[in-house]
Design goal:
This protein is mainly beta. It contains one helix and ten strands.
Length: 139
């Protein structure tokens, strides 16, 4: 019998908390220009989970945008402290995209690939041990 994993996280001020009862499906670091804004300068590290496994308490405010890939996205953040928490892609509603830094255990899963490296600043350090894609990953 397999035990369900629960991963928790939330924002800096504690107004938003989430719990995910599933194993992560993957993680990637995105260097697109929008993610640089979200991170305050670097790329965002995003851990992907099945959306149906996530429970959120507290108010998440959503900002609509179109990613460099052309995907319609929603970026979720705490309206009180501004912590970036989540993303949703209109084309992939079955996925919950969680900012690794919002997890209580940010070491849960490191990036398995770097995407949108063509937009990365010259000073960005890319891990040579993982795949790099100049735009969106092919899968």
């Amino acid at each position: 019998m397999t035990q369900t994993q629960t991963h928790e996280g939330g924002c800096l001020c504690g107004a938003v908390r989430f719990a995910i009862e599933a194993a992560p499906m993957g993680a990637r670091r995105c260097w697109c220009r929008l993610c640089q804004y979200l991170s305050g300068g670097g790329g965002t590290v995003n851990v992907i989970f099945p959306n149906e496994a996530m429970r959120v308490t507290g108010e998440v405010r959503w900002h609509d945008s179109v990613a460099d890939s052309g995907n319609a996205m929603q970026r979720g953040f705490c309206p009180d402290c501004g912590t970036p928490l989540l993303s949703r892609a209109e084309a992939r509603p079955h996925l919950a995209i969680v900012r690794a830094g919002a997890l209580d255990n940010p070491s849960l899963l490191g990036p398995q690939m770097d995407i949108w490296t063509q937009a990365a600043p010259r000073w960005a350090t890319l891990d040579p041990a993982i795949p790099h894609y100049p735009t969106q990953n092919p899968s």
